[in-house]
Amino acid sequence: MVALKLEALGAHYGRNRIFTDITTGDIVGGMLTAVIGPNAAGKSTLFKRIAGLLKGDGVVHVSGEESLRPICYMPQDTGANAVLTVYESVLLASKQGSGWKVADQELVDIDRILSSLRITDLAFRDLGELSGGQRQLVAIAQALVRKPQILLMDEPTSALDLFRQIEVLQHMHQLARQTDMAVLIALHDLNHAMRYCDHSLVVADGRLVANGPTADVITPALLRQVYRVDARIENCTQGRPLVIVDAALA
Question: How many helices (H) and strands (E) does the chain have?
Fold first, then answer.
């Protein structure tokens, strides 16, 4: 089983240090891990640093990997190339780092992924014709077809309506377990993190503030410290914890 471990990780843009000394235990396959924190906390930069797109201090340890492409990063801004259809873009993603010969199984995998995300009807639409939410779903398909063992998803639900948000989070939660993939997902909705994510990392003020099981990490004290809100954690009628915010703190 794959495991991701960060050791004294740091990153900066020029002289502007974004974060420093981020250290975690093993983030293992089969788990959905939320990466949470306020705006400009460095979540996107952390993903780029883990994916090797930025240089910096520290070491990213990946153990147990068997894939040639163990880490895949899905950015917030996926862009759109109007020249390609959805199907072509997903096929192109599947061929990154490999030869150009297309096997029958690769086509089967693409069909399965499009179906699982319920975007088969978009297969032969040009990317440039799609809405932001549709492009976000295509970007998820492009990431999944690469079969990574570690998937970094930077706010993959930000452009989706509520139904699609829940559908994607349910799908990723199940997929992580079924494939032993380690999925790290940047989220702003803390109730979604509490409902679907086994583990949470909290990034704020250029450092790792908390790291552990989501139910232990998201507390009224942390919400006051990191988000500057007066909030409660209460269980709904089905026994699931919910964040209820009473006031923003001055």
Answer: 8, 13
Q: Cβ(51)–Cβ(152) under 8 Å?
A: yes
Give tens-digit pLDDT for 160-205.
Answer: 999 999 999 999 999 999 999 999 999 999 999 999 999 999 999 9
Low-confidence ranges of the chain (pLDDT < 50): none
Q: What is the pLDDT of residues 7-35, one digit of tens each?
A: 999 998 888 889 999 999 999 999 999 99
Dist. CA 166–CA 38, nearest whole Å = 22
CATH superfamily of 3-218: P-loop containing nucleotide triphosphate hydrolases (3.40.50.300)
Do residues 45 and 16 touch, judged by C-beta distance below 8 A?
no
Lookup: tokens for 44: 């996107």
Which pair of tokens denotes residue 19? 């974060």
For residues 25 and 67, give the distance between their C-alpha atoms in angstroms, rounded to a whole number: 22
β-pairing, 241-248 vs 59-63, is unpaired
Give domain limits for the chain: 3-218, 219-250
pLDDT of residue 82: 66
Both tokens assigned to 109: 């995998």
